[in-house]
Amino acid sequence: MSVTDVILAVEDELSEIVSAKILKQFNISIRNTIIGKGNISLRQKAPEFNRSANGIGIFFLTDLDSPQDCPPALIHSWIRGPLNPRFLFRVSVMEVESWVMADRVAFSSFLSIPIHRIPSPTDDILKPKEFLVSLARRSQKKDVSEALVPNPDANLPVCAEYNELLSEFVNDHWDLERAATVSPSFKRTLDRLTLLRK
């Protein structure tokens, strides 16, 4: 089985950018993109995607979110049946930010922080988005810190520029091979696509 183009289904803008870069690496084009506005919407659509992934593949990325879950159990609970081989259901552990930070070399340079502040493996970070913001607070780059760290009075988890700045990092600096050495869940996704393209 070979897949050359897919429908992309993701939770948010950052997941879209990360997925697009992954698929480009494997010369898989994106025919259409569906952004689910969180995993509840994606969960509702997952069985339908699984049934319809026939003539065209579907690359589907969601976050694990809870350490009580594991990717196979999450997939089974969402699909409740055989997984269509053209339905590429991938789960980032714990969130897509774990995959972004997994290129520790580039991300530490991007934030201008010591590399040892980024744990390895990044899949072990329980709340990656919050952890990423905490790293940004230590950044020597004022513009980066201001774009990622919300004002305490705003009562928001991230700034409005969060996705834009991290998307820029992913597109311009993020290295998939380096990230795969630090995030096991990301490596599994690359391995799955490598087998698919063979």
Q: Give unreliable regions as ranges.
A: none
Form type? globular
Query: Briefly, what CATH class of the largest domain?
Result: Alpha Beta
Task: Give the strand order, joined by hyphens, for the main sheet.
Answer: 2-1-3-4
Total helical elements: 10
Task: Estimate percent helicity.
Answer: 40-55%
The overall pLDDT average reads 93
By DSSP, the count of extended strands is 4
Compute the gyration radius: what is it? 17 Å
Describe the sheet with the most strands. Answer: 4 strands, parallel
The CATH architecture of the largest domain is 3-Layer(aba) Sandwich
* Beta-strand content estimate: 5-15%
CATH topology category name of the largest domain: Rossmann fold
Question: How many discrete structural domains?
Answer: 2
Structural class: alpha/beta
Report on the structure:
The chain is α/β, with parallel strands linked by helices and 198 residues long. The chain has two domains: 5-96 and 177-197, Rossmann fold; 98-174, no CATH class. Helix content is 49%, strand content 13%. It has helices at residues 13-25, 39-52, 71-79, 96-101, 104-111, 128-137, 142-148, 162-172, 176-180, 184-197; strands spanning 5-10, 29-35, 57-63, 87-92. Strands 2-1-3-4 form a four-stranded parallel sheet, sandwiched between helices. Helix 1 (13-25) packs parallel to helix 8 (162-172). 38% of the residues are buried. The model has no long low-confidence stretch (mean pLDDT 93).
